[in-house]
Amino acid sequence: MSPPDQPPSATASRDRPVLVVDFGAQYAQLIARRVREAHIYSEIVPHTLPATEIADRQPGAVIFSGGPKSVHVEGSPRIDPDVYRLGIPILGICYGAQLIAAQLGGRVSQTGVGEYGRTAMQVRSPSLLLDANADDRTPAGDGPDSPTAADTEERGERSVWMSHFDSITTPPAGFRVTASTPQAPVAALEHPQQRIFGVQFHPEVAHTPGGQAVLERFLYRGAGLAPTWTTASFIDEAVAAVRRQIGDGRAVCGLSGGVDSAVAAALVHRAVGRQLTCVYVDTGLMRQGESDQVIDAFRRSQGIDLIAVNAADRFFDALTGVIDPEEKRKIIGELFIRIFEQAAHDIDGAAFLVQGTLYPDVIESGSDAAAKIKSHHNVGGIPDEMDFELVEPLRDLFKDEVRTVGQELGLPDEIVWRQPFPGPGLGVRVIGEVTPDKVGLLARADAIVRAEIAAAGLERDVWQAFAVLPDIRTVGVMGDERTYGQVVVIRAVTSDDAMTADWARLPYELLEQMSSRIVNEVDGINRVAYDITSKPPGTIEWE
Ligand code: XMP
Prior knowledge:
Largest sheet: 9 strands, mixed
CATH superfamily of the largest domain: Class I glutamine amidotransferase (GATase) domain
Radius of gyration: 27 Å
Helix content: 25-40%
Bound molecules: xanthosine-5'-monophosphate
CATH class of the largest domain: Alpha Beta
Shape: globular
Number of helices: 15
Number of domains: 3
């Protein structure tokens, strides 16, 4: 559905956020993202947040996520019941809906039969959330109690995604049941006057057709919110905030070539221009053409002050004789930090350090207040003892929003849509000892894999596609000659978040094209294999 006709306003974009209360669901982040896709700012909060603190944040609406527990289990997560008295519109999803029913006097039963996956749902009565025709009428307040003939036509069967064991069997007093399924007599319920809604299905998942429209009806019609969270409004606010923070100081940013640091740098540059200096450390372990691309995009296209340090020799020296993957990571990470530190200290008076921390990092670190330096294995991790104040302009954004901001800031597609690349780079894709020759061989094969994926138009369908050099030799024959050359493994996976992944079902013709180009164009390689392992049990990288 299209949002009500309300002009986006730069100043109002974060007013009245939608709070997504996390009941331990894998879906809380997804719900928050879907709300943002409706151009309304959302944040995830713990279910332990007292009602007074919820009220203090002046939310435009509250959404209760699903959760793995049963409301009947002792100690299952609850919400402060005073939240129902705040007059804030509420939508409960799955466990969230059951909790509303249980806390407001309805009944949730352990029926012994759950529903998982695609389910046919019957829409039974006029419903603000479920009636598509309400979209074309006046917003908030004036639809659900005045059904039209068109509403009735709209009712009928819908396909929704379910994942529940308990079921709401009796709604609380004053609630209307608007839909049901074979195992969920109350699949959707609402109290339009109190503006409290519940759905047993998951509108946030792609498997529920029209699910986004259900959420948007809640936000626009149920809660009367306006779609003011836009890329342009975010950029305006972020630029103003960065200017306030940095003032006339100097800032430094380590560019890894990845999208997060790139967008953070471009944003800070828009705010403070030449008060920002970027440092790019070329480890010699980058993909073919990558260093030139980064330097070109920042120095030439964006006009950003950039110091490029070519440190390839130092990295290869440090990696001589090292074969253990974790040792490689440690050596590469520490050396990177030392080189970055040196370059940053050479920038006179730099007091601020720009980091591309994203909202999922903030959620995972369990604190939305304390600025925390990422210290995981990523190259670009910055040592704690560095005496800089952090500037983290992307702390509130999800990855897809970062890409949109990057596009709006004029960064090239190759950077905005870059696939994830491990900090230690090709160092963990050459198995065994890392030498310039092996990295050169791998980089050429890898460039062919990526070029063919791009030519086939599959770049955005695969999560990562790359080459690995397992550093084993096999016998082959080329012309009349016996060869004894290196093997290249092609790895291509689909994934949503890298936590799990499946090997990509690339067309045979595409694999054939990659294979024949690699053996013909990369001297020293005489065999190509395709990795058909998912994660788990494999990992995406080979080391
Ligand atoms: P695995 O191999 O664990 O990788 O399935 C999951 C995701 O993380 C990336 N990866 C790394 N990223 N430093 C990074 O910054 C690393 O050492 C590292 N190791 C793996 C990998 O490319 C995939 O996207």
